[in-house]
Amino acid sequence: MSEPTNPAATTFPAPTISLPVGLDILRTYSGALVCLEILFGGLVWILVASSNVPVPLLQGWVMFVSVSMFVGSAAYLVVFLLGFADRINTDWNFLDVVYHFVALLFYFAAFVLEAATTAAAVGMVSMNQTTVCMTRPASNVFTILDVRQYSINVAATVFAFVVTLCYACSMFMGFKRWRMHG
Fold it and tell me: DSSP for 80-147?
């Protein structure tokens, strides 16, 4: 005689998720923000790389963050697009908040470092010069930026700020979902 099985012991709870899966994710504000994070994060990556990273001590972190968060956000979006979020048993609302909080911290630090790199050269820019000398911080580091590198760093700073705002909005919306459904 077979023993009756306890259905609670053989089934798993459904994943906690309040975002749609498949292409419907792209119709939500959260999905649109993740797409913007990928787009503008990729621009930060491209801009810093195209400036030949004139201040590696500061811009190395910017490169690390832009590449890491680009890959992370792309993987996050793919999980929802392919419907894996329904198959993986976890609290997706909580993971959404944690991921966007960490990304916000990383990108805020990257934005500050990129802004510091750019601001250090701002006093030396004029229309007549072809090079910009970075003399701040007053240390043994002396970097010369040409006007092209300076302009690229200004654009990278602006886009790093935009990406930081996107991650902040995503974190706020994720926190609201987590509190509502948690």
Answer: HHTTHHHHS-SBHHHHHHHHHHHHHHHHHHHHHHHHHHHHTTGGG--SS-SEEEE--SSSS--EEEEH
pLDDT tens for the chain, 182 residues long, are 566 666 555 555 556 777 888 899 999 999 999 999 999 999 999 999 998 877 777 888 999 999 999 999 999 999 999 999 888 888 888 999 999 999 999 999 999 999 988 887 665 554 445 555 554 555 544 556 778 888 899 999 999 999 999 999 999 999 998 888 76
In one-letter notation, the amino acid at residue 6 is: N
Listed residue (66, 94, 76) closest to 33, CA to CA: 76
Query: Amino acid identity, residue 170?
Result: S
Domain boundaries, the chain: 19-181
Exposed/middle/buried for residue 9 (C-beta within 10 Å: 0-12, 13-18, 19+):
exposed
CA 47 to CA 40: how far, in whole Å? 10
Residue by residue, DSSP assigns 129-148 as -SEEEE--SSSS--EEEEHH
How many residues does the structure list for the chain?
182
∠49-50-55 over CA atoms, to 5°? Answer: 60
